[in-house]
Specification:
The protein is of the alpha+beta class. The protein has one domain. 36% of the residues lie in helices and 13% in strands. The protein has 14 helices and 10 strands. The strands form 4 sheets. Strands 1-2-7-4 form a 4-stranded antiparallel sheet, sandwiched between helices. The protein has a two-stranded parallel ribbon with strand order 3-10. Strand 5 and strand 6 form a beta hairpin. It starts with a helix and ends with a helix. 37% of the residues are buried. The mean pLDDT is 96. One iron/sulfur cluster binds next to helix 6 and helix 9.
Length: 304
């Protein structure tokens, strides 16, 4: 019979074996501290056309509604930070979208990790989440001691910065829990707020999606109504200017290496690419989330 501390150690060691860069564990408590934050963000309409954010309000806060008898949230972090950069002539793409779709890669890793945990702890039940289902990933990662919220509202790890993917296993066995990191990590810094070209960060930790290039170039199905400042898909400005990302560990994980075309295609190449070629080249890319028509619209918008 393992102690709670031994269970946590085994879980964390297996997380590393399956290729995750960091693992922390939080108690599956009700996220009461996020209730008003989420409500106020929705009330202001900052979710723009992402109506799905209004659904499953209680599920976002209550892990017991996602996994019966939930006890623990195992948070795993994967860095996609790499040395690869786009050429100066290429319309800009958020760094996470330069390679293959992380959902597919991380879901496989998370499934394998869970299968392994089940072999070690046959009584364990639960469910994996990779940017799927209503779950407040950053909050769980903060509670699991993996990092904190920056004023940009992005999650920041002290080692890996913000160029990271978060995923979780909510399970029904108890473990030893990590503590959130303590400190005022942003201090007097304001670089992300000052650096956002559309003033989308309306106050520290709050982003109005209507003004955010990332939302406009990916999620918005209507005409873009803000300048996109050269961004074709997503936007990394508030991450790029953050001092924590300037010294973040570069992992260069092979599975997240860029598709060559995302680095080198020029503005003209994007303007001229046909739908068949787009679908062939970017079949496994996050750009498919926007789709061909949207990418074409984004190119036009850059030119405006
Ligand atoms: S992603 Fe870009 S537009 Fe959105 S808040 Fe950050 S800097 Fe502003
Ligand atoms: S840029 Fe400065 S204020 Fe913004 S998240 Fe980074 S440290 Fe915090």
């Amino acid at each position: 019979m393992s102690t709670l501390s031994e269970i946590s150690k085994i879980v964390k060691s297996q997380a590393v074996q399956f290729g995750f860069d960091a693992c922390g564990i939080a108690r599956a408590d009700y996220l009461g501290n996020r209730k008003n934050v989420l409500k106020s963000w929705l009330d202001k309409g900052y979710n723009a056309s992402m109506n799905y954010m209004e659904n499953h309000f209680e599920k976002r806060l209550n892990p017991q509604l996602l996994v019966e008898s939930a006890k623990s949230v195992i948070c795993v972090l994967t860095s996609y930070n790499s040395d690869a950069r786009q050429s100066a002539a290429a319309p800009k793409i958020a760094r996470y979208a330069l390679g293959f779709d992380y959902h597919v890669i991380i879901r496989k890793k998370l499934n394998d990790f869970f299968v392994s945990l089940k072999k070690t702890f046959p009584q364990i039940n639960g469910r994996g989440f990779v940017d799927s289902a209503p779950i407040l990933e950053r909050e769980w990662a903060v509670r699991a001691g993996l990092g904190w919220y920056g004023k940009s509202a992005a999650f920041i790890s002290p080692v890996f910065g913000s160029f990271v993917f978060l995923s979780e296993l909510i399970v029904d066995i108890e473990m030893e829990y990590d503590k959130p990191l303590k400190g005022n990590f942003c201090g007097a810094c304001n670089k992300c707020i000052a650096g956002c070209p559309n003033s989308a960060i309306t106050e520290p930790y709050v982003v109005n999606s209507q003004k955010c290039i990332a939302y406009q170039t990916i999620e918005n199905r209507n005409e873009i109504n803000i300048p996109s400042h050269g961004w074709l898909f997503g936007c990394d400005i508030c991450l790029q200017v953050c001092p924590y990302n300037k010294c973040a560990k570069i992992c260069n994980h092979e599975e997240f290496q860029p598709v060559a075309e995302t680095l080198d295609m020029s503005f003209d190449d994007w303007e001229n690419i046909g739908e068949d070629d787009f679908k062939k080249i970017f079949a496994k890319s996050p750009l498919m989330r926007a789709g061909y028509e949207k990418i074409k619209q984004n190119i036009k918008n850059i030119k405006r």
